[in-house]
Amino acid sequence: MGRLLLLLLVIVAVVLLWKAFAPQSLGGAPRPQQPRAIKGPDDDEEFLWQLEKEQFKKRRAEEERKKREED
Questions:
Q1: What does the pLDDT read at residue 26?
Q2: Cα(31)–Cα(33) distance, rounded to whole angstroms?
Q3: How many Å separate Cα 70 from the centre of its chain?
Q4: How far is CA 62 from the centre of its chain?
């Protein structure tokens, strides 16, 4: 009797775990989609890369201007 009860509890636990964590296409509960985290400009790699490129271009232009003035 105890083994039957234990087997029943194991089956119930497996079914509950399957319902909770199974992929949605296989019958699991639908999971809410998390919206993308809003990034500030200081967290956006593309924005920071663009800033760095602009600063490099400005430094390069300033160096070229100084070279022309010296000549």
A1: 59
A2: 6
A3: 51
A4: 39
